[in-house]
Task: structure prediction
Amino acid sequence: MAEGLDRNILIFPAGMPGAVEFLGQALGQGRKVIGASSLKYDPVRDLYPEWAWLPYVSEPDFDEAFALLAAGKNVGEVYTPHPAIWRYLRQALGRLAPEADLINDEPLDANLAGCRAAMARARSFLSRPLGLASLPPTARPLTFLEASALFRSVEAIPGQCDHQKVAALCEIARCCPRGDVVEIGSLWGKSAFVLNYLSGVYGLGPVLCIDPWDSTEMIQNDKGGLVDDFARHIDLDEALTLFQINLLPTGRGNLNFLRLPSVEAAVFYRGRGEVGSAAFGQTVYSRQISLLHIDGNHGLEAVRSDLAAWSDLMVPGGWIVIDDYLWPFGHGPRIAADELLTRRHGELACAFVSGGALFVQIGDGVINEGTSA
Result:
């Protein structure tokens, strides 16, 4: 087995996306790398500090050329993202380059790992449904394919919406009446993707995402200042761009956004009922909310303001989700949520905590926090 950092890593075929990604990791560790390709001209050639040409693995002179390259260039490790070449080298490397190791696991398993994990989560979710005594009667659960697609897609979006919370959102979406779906605080769009997906499956209504994407609105004075310090390092213009990228494939026609603080957005929503953007076109809203997801600024007054600005628009049977009800960096969401539970206890049909969020279903009485445009 090759040891030490003085040996070269051979990456072949060097032009595949997985190869280029691994190249960045290796160079970041200060390793010496050789890229190799069977193409006479490979567009990634200039990315590599050293380059070699090899015949196609199916050609009779491949073995000899590979062995000469490995010996002549002091190759101690080989990385290949190509499934067929990986399987061949796993069998032949000891003969072609006895001092070299094949350092990556089977590419096919790596490529399918995310899909397999999503299917496993879907099976687990469907085997343990969340029983809710809710109004109106629930719709069907997600199918295995629908749940797998959701878990697989959302995994590609950065954010803090964990699997337990996603599962709970899936369950309450079955209990929602028709109406708008409004999210306060979207950032990169992870939970917005979940809400839009579920709105489409269950025919709830269009999704409106509210986020100022502004650094001054993200300061929450959290305990210890860790969240605020993290927030200062987020490129919020980039975050908005990524939000649109993440939501555009499924959101056009059913989703839009307002780059405004929550209270200002509520005034706009109440007065207009229609939102337009270059990315998503025009979206018409009923101004009656079926599902309200509050995940904006977690300062106590900010959460109180979110509830006051939006919750009187809830339709009976709708749900309010207050994220980070259990939050290690402060108690703003919990205090504001507990105040809501206390004031409106007789009007609520159901309340529970999952994934750190509080889920509250409105009963026959409509919540009115006293704010109007």
About this structure: The first strand starts at residue 8 and ends at 11.
